User: What shape does this take?
Amino acid sequence: MTSVDEPARTGARTRDAARTQAEILDVATREFARAGYDGARVDEIAAQTRTTKRMIYYYFGGKEQLFTAVLERAYGVIREAEQELDVDHLDPLAAIRRLAELTFDHHERHPDFIRLVSIENIHDAAHIASSEMLASIGSPALDVIRRILEEGQRTGLFRADVDAVDLHAMISSFCFFRVANRHTFGALFGRDLVAPEQREHYRAMLGDMVIAYLTAERTAV
Amino acid sequence: MTSVDEPARTGARTRDAARTQAEILDVATREFARAGYDGARVDEIAAQTRTTKRMIYYYFGGKEQLFTAVLERAYGVIREAEQELDVDHLDPLAAIRRLAELTFDHHERHPDFIRLVSIENIHDAAHIASSEMLASIGSPALDVIRRILEEGQRTGLFRADVDAVDLHAMISSFCFFRVANRHTFGALFGRDLVAPEQREHYRAMLGDMVIAYLTAERTAV
DNA sequence: CGGTTAATGTACGAACCAGTACGTTAGTCA
DNA sequence: TGACTAACGTACTGGTTCGTACATTAACCG
Assistant: This one.
């Protein structure tokens, strides 16, 4: 979520297309995450940049395309983070716990991203569907899970009837819910799931849950 | 989500306050769930009822209060459902699986409710906070979980370091994610988490997960 | 160094939308 | 039965908000 990469070769602040676009995306990400797609105001986004509304339409075409661009960049960030994943040197048990913890950490560190995903689901993932980039982005995390799972299942340590996508859903659901539903859960049950002092507790709970599930004997229905 | 209870004693359709209010709430629930708070249109809600926009303001005061009323009724429905919970005759293991399954079923049957909760979280649970009813609604399900947990922990069957709120969060997160994030998950990973043919698979997965976690030996960090 | 174009700013329009002023009718009760 | 009030309808308004027409300037290139 940091802004620009090219500080413009001269000190001059004017006429820097890349920087203007990046700044618009930064602000738009915050505004859309704050208020939702329909709640976000194009004028408000413009006001928070050093440029004008005109530029938003010049570079992105419209509100809808701007939101899609925001999503594309946000998913790009997590994709990059997932590519950093390095758990191959660990045994399956430690590897899967580590992966779960990194997912946990990532969700906690990017609440705006979580909100964007919630918002996109309210719109039935229409923007993802119409984005070539997003439709084909893939998931490095899924590949990692697949490898760990294969190893664990080969040695008989893990139950055989799980696949990578399901396990990813299980881990994500816990991490996502904790951040996304923080407000209603807190208001209704009086417990802040994202309180710093409970962080380690929930992190361990996730790891325990995943490992317990993977190593459990098949229970009867 | 069925509409009215009093079919009006005469066949006359006019002048039935309770029915008008219920009809507005029905339609508003759908419209808010469909488009989000800011995306929903008061005119559109009015158009889908047999009455006019004037009545919405007459009975509810405004868009904001209407949304709060929608939330209040939606939470009222799940509260009633939870009061039907009857698992006390089962042993702790069977009871907790049954409870998880009922939660699973309820989420699946009420996707509009899930969307409303997502929407309310985007607004930082502001409406819940300002509603006396919602702030004090409580949760029968939580009481049930508490009882099961106590029994299971007393006999040493369940691990001791879980409390009812955390377990409720764990169960809810799986059920909620599956419905709420169905669209983005499907678009990105090509798997429909709510596909009917996968229903039993995920239902069993949830039960297995919860039981495995509760009965696991404390694993090392 | 003049011209071409990418980049930017200003001001405005047209549609939309929450909310309301004002008027009307159905039921009810004395 | 007449008057009172709850319930309802119509038509409008004032502000908001996405989007754009038009004007301008900086950079680059031959």
